[in-house]
Amino acid sequence: MFKNLQTEIVTEVKWPSNGFMLRTSQYKIDVPNGVPSSALRMPNYVDVSGMSAALRSGSTLAQGAGGQLGSVNGLVTSQLTLRFADQAKQWKSRCVGEPNRGPVEFTFQGGKVHFALALGIFVLNPNKPSPGDEVSDRIFSVIYSHELLHVVDNLDMLNNWLPPRLKQIRVIDEYLIRRKPYLYGRAVDSLDGLTREFPEFVRNKIETEAHNLWAVEANQRQAIRDAPQEYGKVQGQINDLRSSRTIRRR
Questions:
Q1: Cα 138 from Cα 157, distance rounded (Å)
Q2: Each residue of 143-195: pLDDT tens digit?
Q3: Is 120 a domain residue?
Q4: 2: in domain
Q5: Structural domain of residue 148, as residue ranges?
Q6: Is 104 inside a domain boundary?
Q7: What is the number of other CB atoms lying within 10 angstroms of the CB of residue 206?
């Protein structure tokens, strides 16, 4: 089925934690260029323990205010994963020793290789907008608008930065693009066992390399977005809004 097909790297975005769209007309959200309407998701509202769990989740690419839980008002998480279109048919096996024994040469036959980025948006419960409370709406807008900067960075990396660099990763270049046979297993291993193990082995190997590549760039972009002077402006707006509420109540 996949013989002589070109290797096609496909990128896609998933929102496993944010299934509902945000009604942005209710808020004055500053949407950066490059953020499609499909990315304007209702955030998950969490308490401090939930935010702490989100910070530890995914690809350690949790991006939010300052990097310290005490100062995090919102958070964007991301996790990069790989999926073969039909891995059982995309890898051809050949025993190089005894029949039905290892080691085995696995050769990629081409077709689509999907790199999916799972994104998540989280906001602390105290920052959830309250019906009829204009100040809470504006605080939420400030926080959500900042988190969209992390979203647009992730989308730009996935769609523009990542694809050409994936082909420079040795394991992708050698075994998916140039289709060099991958020798896997030992003489004591069975062909059936190696055939079951190999897809997960090679997927984990490629994911690790891709993640290491991604993390360096993602951390650099995060450092710019959440630099003290930059996030200080965001926190300053939040503090001013909270102060205005206090003054009104006097």
A1: 29
A2: 999 999 999 999 999 999 999 999 999 999 999 999 999 999 999 999 999 99
A3: yes
A4: no
A5: 7-249
A6: yes
A7: 20
